[in-house]
Amino acid sequence: MEEVLVLIVGAGPAGLATAACLSQFSIPYVIVERESCSAPLWQNRAYDRLKIHLAKEFCELPHMSYPVDAPTYIPKNQFVKCLDDYIERFNIQPKYLTAVESSTYDIDEKCWSIIARDIEKCTIVNYKAKFLVVASGENSEDNIPVVPGLETFPGVAIQSSNYKSGISYTGRNVLVVGSGNSGMEIAYDLSSHGANTSIVIRSPVHIMPKELIRLGMTLVRHLPMKLVDDLIVMMANFIFGDLTRHGITRPKKGPFVVKSGSGRLAVIDVGTVGLIKKGNIKVQGRMTKIKGKVVEFEGGKEGSFDAILFATGYKSTANRWLKNGEDMLNSDGLPNKELEFQNHWKGANMIYCAGLGRRGLAGIALDAKNISSDIKSSIESMPG
Ligand SMILES: Cc1cc2nc3c(=O)[nH]c(=O)nc-3n(C[C@H](O)[C@H](O)[C@H](O)COP(=O)(O)OP(=O)(O)OC[C@H]3O[C@@H](n4cnc5c(N)ncnc54)[C@H](O)[C@@H]3O)c2cc1C
Ligand SMILES: *[C@@H]1O[C@H](CO)[C@@H](O)[C@H](O)[C@H]1NC(C)=O
Ligand SMILES: *[C@@H]1O[C@H](CO)[C@@H](O)[C@H](O)[C@H]1NC(C)=O
């Protein structure tokens, strides 16, 4: 049994940011990570051409700024390098290959009892912590949709987290499912590598040139959100032209209004729209069923494919190991108070969550600062 003041679960950007903030206050903590490196999502589960979607000034972690000469949109490998520097600078020493399996609140002792598995030694490690920080991520596990007949598909069917590049798909018929940032960018990557690419876009989506998002993020600091939305939607429609004939429509609410509600940012165009307009990437509606190589879409259209790439998102898994955290996280392992962004990061009994508010790296930075100052004031007000 190891007694610790603060236990942080997860050494992705959120766990690391919280650790850095705590160390600035000289508050001792232990940080555990189930995989063998920090930020494994970025190191192992992201495609090669990924860059941070937002301009670097909107993605800083606490006490870290990107090098002045770094590109505006930081490539994945450079981001990983920045995180490594961050770890070194704040002397963060995650306990790797340590997966938390359960956490329960001990009412008598007023502390969290955590059971973790040492994956290397195949042993159990027990922790007692006064404060528990859930930083296990919104992207802890792939979300796989149910499609009737998927088991009959003879080709490659993989998740976006296993996709690296389009290089091995040249000349193949490939279907990308999902129209978030990953799906759109992977479709672009496949098509640029000469794959005959189709993408399933099921619902309305805001696709925006990245410079317009950057402009919008600056303008919303000074102007009403609705006005900024109208302005950038008008500009995007002018730049892209009418996309409805390609099967792409916009949600009724504007991109920043959507973001302030759900946290979801518009899809940032990396060139996909141009390839769709040229007819290089074909847009399909919802998939209805799969029969062998043939995929059927809404409205009866069908196509034959060699590979299917699911870019259908991720899920949090915190609810599987966290007991007694119901007031903070719902059954999807995400904050109950999602809509009240200011307060989502704290639950009862000294439990916190970092990085679950659907606000990307900027949200992670805010969470880490809020959590560490809250822990600091709790410690200061403790008797003795
Ligand atoms: C492909 C992709 C691109 C993205 N691009 C951007 C972007 O450009 N800009 C932006 O702001 N955001 C982006 N995001 C969203 C978000 O900022 C990142 O996902 C970020 O890595 C989230 O950090 P995190 O620490 O909350 O979660 P993660 O990076 O997922 O870290 C959580 C860690 O917890 C560990 N863990 C989970 N369960 C346990 C357990 N039981 N025990 C021990 N350890 C556990 C995991 O292994 C993981 O390392 C992107 C997300 C994805 C998937
Ligand atoms: C490319 O994919 C589309 C959509 O599935 C299909 O109609 C077309 O025949 C394919 N082209 C080639 C050359 O295979
Ligand atoms: C959390 O941080 C934000 C931004 O720094 C601040 O405005 C807010 O008051 C903090 N919330 C609490 C409850 O301390």
| Total of domains | 2
Q: Which spans of ≥5 residues are poorly predicted at pLDDT below 50?
A: none
Structural class, judged by helices and strands? alpha/beta
Largest sheet: 6 strands, mixed
* CATH superfamily caption of the largest domain: FAD/NAD(P)-binding domain
Shape: globular
Oligomeric state of the chains in view: single chain
Contiguous helical run count: 10
Proportion of strand residues: 15-25%
Q: Classify the helix fraction into a percent range.
A: 25-40%
Order of helices and strands: EHEHHEEEEEEHEEHHHEHEEEEEEHEH
Mean pLDDT, as a whole number? Answer: 95
Q: Could you give the count of β-strands? A: 18
CATH top-level class of the largest domain: Alpha Beta
Q: Using the coordinates shown, work out and report the CATH topology of the largest domain.
A: FAD/NAD(P)-binding domain
Alpha carbon gyration radius: 22 Å
